[in-house]
Amino acid sequence: MTGSLKESLESFYAAKVWEDMTLGKALLAWSENYGDNIALTEADRQVTYQELEREAGRIGAGLQRRGFGKGDKIVLQIPNSIEFVVSAFALFKLGVIPVMALPAQRKTEIKGIMEKSGAKGYVIKDNYLGFDYKSLAREICRESQTPPAVIVIGQSDEFIAYEDLREGPELSDEPEIGSGEVGLFLLSGGTTGIPKLIPRRHADYLYVAQKTAERCRLNQESVYLAALPVAHNFPLGCPGLLGTLTVGGRVVICTVASPDEIIPLIEEEGVTITGLVPALAHMCIEFLELDDGYDISSLKVIQVGGAVLDSYLAARIEKAFACTLQQIFGIAEGLICCTDLADGEEIRYHTQGKPISAYDEILIVDEKGREVPEGEYGELTVRGPYTIYGYYNLEEVNQSCLSDQGYFKTGDKARWQDGNLQVAGRLKEMINRAGEKITPSELEELLLRHEDIGDVQVVGIEDQELGERLCVFILAQNKGLTLNGLRNYLVGQQVASYKLPDQLVYLEAWPLTNVGKIDRKQLRVLGTQR
Fold first, then answer.
1. Close Cβ partners of 135 (under 8 Å, ≥ 6 residues apart)
2. Of 179, 200, 221, which residue constitutes the final position of a domain?
3. Do 127 and 274 reside in the same domain of the chain?
4. Which UniProt keyword terms apply here (predicted)?
C-alpha cells in the first residue's frame, strides 16, 4: 500500500467515518443491547442474540484449542444455516479470517481458493442438495502438500466433528484485533478462472452493513429473509444478515433459494424485507401467478440486484409483491448504491440510486481515463472508505485495476442520470457487431414488451464475419415467434438496423451461476452450438 493510500484510510478514522469496532466485538455489543431478542430463525430453530454470542465463543474456543489463531485463514463452505453464522462470528472473534466460499463451488474453485489464501482449515456441511462435501474434502486433502484441517457439520467420518468444537469452555482469551485489520475474504464474481480474494476490513464491512440498513430503514421490528447464499456480499452485508443484526432485527434463513421455499417463508415468518437477483425474482413472480393463495402482505421492501434489472421486470416485481422495490448495485470490492424507499417510480425502475456514503467518490471515465460528461456512458470507477485498494496476493492484477489516483476500475458501464447512477451492465458484455457497439440491456427491455416473450437475454456470439453476432435467447410464452418476426417487431420499435438480431434460441430455463445469476458465459456456449 502506498503512503497516500494509507493516509486516505487513516483520514476515514480521523473523520470518524468508521466505527472503531471489529465484527466480533460488534456481536458482543448486540448481545448486550438486544439480549433475548431472536436473532436467527431456521425452520423450527431459533437463536437469541445472547445465545449467538455464547455459541460463537464456544466454537471459537474449540478452534483455538485445535491450534487456530489470529491471521490464519479458514475456508467456510457452508450452506445457509445457523451454523454458517455461528462459524463466521467465531472466526471474527478469534482473528481467523474466513474465506467465504459458495456451496455450489467445486474442486477447481476450492482447491484454487485454498492455495491462494494459504488456508489451514476447511469447514463444510456433510451433504447438501445431494452433493457429498466430504468426498470433495478428501480430494482436496489428497492433492494438497499441506492438507487443511477439515471440520464437518453433520456426519464427520474421519474428519473433525463440528459438534466436538462445542465441548469445553467458551473463548476467554480473545486476541487483540484492530478494526482496520482484514476481517474476511469475499470472492470475486465472474464465471471464469479461480475467484480473486477480496480483503474486507472489520470496520469497513460493518460500516456498509450499517449504512445500507439506514437506507432500508431497518429497525428491531425488521425481519430479513436470507434467500440468496449468505456467503455472497449482497445477502451477507447489504444490509443482509449483518445489517439486520446491527439494529436488533431478526434474520430468517432460507436453506434453498427457490420460490417454493421463499414465498411460504415470507408468509409464515412475517418477513418484511428480502433481497433477490433478477432471475430469482422473475421465478417468484411466476410462482405467485400460479398460486395466489399466499399472504405476503408483511413484505415492505424487496431489494433486487446482482445483475441488470430492466424497467419492465421492475414494475412487474413491485406489482406482484405489492411492496416497494429497491434497486441495489454493488461490488464485493466495495461500492454500494441503492435507491431510496421514497424515490419515485422513474428512479426506482430505471436507476440504481445513489452511493450509501457521502465519502464515496465516483468517476465515470472513457477508455483513456478521462471523465465523461453527465449523461454519457463510460467505465464506473470508485474510491472511498469501504472500497478495496487491491486483491489479496495479486500484485500484477492490482496494478491494472487501480488508476493512478487510487480509483478502483469496476469494469461496469454506467452513467449519471439526474444525480442517480444507471448501470447498463459489464463492459465486457457489450456486443461489438461489425464495429457497432450494442448494449444488451437496451434490447432486452424492448423485447420484454412483446406479448410472446416471457424472459430474454441478448448475448454476443463470436462470428467470423461480424466479429460478434447478436443472439437472442428467449423463455417464450409460445414458440411461434420466428427470427424474422423478432426483427420486424424491433423495426416497429424504431431500432437501428445494426441492432437487429442474427440468431434466435429458445430455452426452457436459464443456466445459472453459483449465486443464481444468469450464466452469460454458458449462453455463449449454447449460442455457438446452435
1. none
2. 200
3. no
4. Ligase
Q: Which three cell numbers stand for residue 132?
A: 457429498
Asked if 137 and 124 count as a contact pair (C-beta separation under 8 A), the reply is: yes
Strand partners, 274: 225, 302
Q: Per-residue pLDDT tens for 507-517? A: 999 998 877 78
CB neighbour list of residue 49: distance below 8 Å, 6 or more residues apart: 30, 31, 33, 34, 35, 36, 37, 39, 245, 248
Closest among 213, 186, 215, 209 to 21, alpha carbons compared: 209
The whole domain housing 156 covers: 21-35+48-200
pLDDT tens readout for residues 463-513 = 888 889 999 999 877 788 999 999 999 999 988 888 999 999 999 999 988
C-alpha cell at 42: 431456521
Residues 148 and 99 in one domain: yes
pLDDT band of 1, cuts 50, 70, 90: very low
Q: Whole-angstrom Cα distance, residue 420 to residue 414?
A: 10
Judgement on whether residues 398 and 466 belong to the same structural domain of the protein: no
CATH code, domain carrying 507: 3.30.300.30
Q: Cα separation of 35 and 42, whole Å?
A: 19
Q: For residues 220-251, b (16+ Cβ closer than 10 Å) or e, as one string?
A: eebbbbbbbbbbbbbbbbbbbbbbbbbbbbbb
Asked if residue 213 belongs to a domain, the reply is: no
CATH of the domain at 26: 3.40.50.980
pLDDT of residue 99: 99
Same-domain pairing of 132 and 266: no
As a whole number, mean pLDDT of residues 131-146 equals 96
Task: Identify the domain boundary among 200, 232, 249.
Answer: 200
What's the predicted TM-score (pTM) here? Answer: 0.89
Does a structural domain hold residue 8? no
Number of Cβ atoms within 10 Å of the Cβ of 90? 28
Nearest C-alpha neighbor of 407 from the set 371, 449, 438, 450: 371
Q: Give a yes or no: residue 226 inside a domain.
A: no
**172 within some domain:** yes
d(CA 138, CA 156): 12
Q: Which residues pair with 381 in a beta bridge?
A: 363, 409
pLDDT at site 480: 84
> Could you tell me if 315 and 341 lie in one domain?
yes
Q: Where are the strands (E) in 202-347, listed by range? A: 223-226, 250-253, 273-276, 301-305, 324-330, 336-338
Closest-CA residue to 315 (of 340, 348, 339)? 348
For 365, residues 6+ apart whose C-beta sits below 8 A from its C-beta are 371, 372, 378, 379, 381
**Does 229 sit behind a cis peptide bond, omega within 30 degrees of 0 on the bond before it?**
no
- What is the pLDDT averaged over residues 256-270? 98
Q: List the CATH number of the domain containing 351.
A: 3.40.50.12780
pLDDT digits (tens, 9 = 90+) for 340-394: 999 999 999 999 999 999 999 999 999 999 999 999 999 999 999 999 989 999 9
